[in-house]
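Much of our argument rests on the idea that a fold can be written as discrete symbols. In the encoding step, the backbone of a single protein was reduced to a row of integers, each denoting a local shape. We regard such an encoding as a compact summary of how the chain folds. The record that follows shows the chain in one-letter code together with its fold in token form:
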Amino acid sequence: MRPRDRSEAERIDAVLAAYHRYNRPLSGIQSPSRRTAFLEQLIESIHRVQYIDRGVLHRRDQERQLAPQRLDPNSYLFDPIKGAAIRAGEGDHDEACWLVFMFTHFGKNLRTGYRLARDVYGSLGNGTAWDWARTSANPEAFRKWLAANVQALRHRTDHGSFGNHRKYQSLDPESPNGTGQAVVSYVNWVLAHRRHQDLFDNAAIEAHYSKRAAFDYLYRSMNVVASFGRVAKVDYLCMLGKLRLADIEPGSTYMTGSTGPLAGARLLFGDQATNSAPREIDRWLVELEARLRLSMGMQVLEDALCNWQKSPDQFLAFRG
């Protein structure tokens, strides 16, 4: 662990010890090796959240070092998250949110990076990008383009090369859960409120201006977006919050329907969690998160638990 992280790790460790003693046993991290591995995963997850604020937004707002190539799908430097930050800084809120959708839907592959998102967003380099203005004006035209080019996309990116969170996703233009329907249904979800900002404003009103309630409102409303299950919805909405495109934050790990995070939580709480429902375990995590006082704390916990359960006795960094 880096020296600059030690004080935060010590603070978190003290909170975990107090929670274990006075609130609920955390029997899964009582061995030194598991406790250390869990703490390191929490610190690693904090870094992922801080990267957007310090590594992306700060550079855009203060140092202005985000290269314009981050928006160019013909460049190997293309990065939909940094591109979203640039567009948001320019006042193009819709395009910024659309780039977050592209990032979430396609992901970043460990081997090919953003190649698939580049190829789709850049219309295979034909000079006319599938940006928000073009796609939202005629989403069925996008579906037709995808149908005509799906084999070329698969060939260029080795059968798709979606990111790890989207590894079971399909480029199919017509299937109910393929890329074609995902794009069409996402556009329809937004256009029901005319634009992204109006959609988020409506969520804020419905949630009485609670960031966490607005997140939950949007999470549930995204059931209409094809192929977006628990992980994709959480990833998309959390990134909107981190980029300050929507004034929202998760108030839950959305444990129901999860695999890795639920396994990690059951391991953390031990025998008491064996027969407990996911909603009950999520309530315990909300209670724990309130004491940890972390920025985007529920996402940090969800991410850390998911990665920790893969290697509970030894810290391993996971990417993708």
User: Anything to note?
Assistant: The two ends are 21 Å apart (CA to CA). The chain has a mean pLDDT of 91.
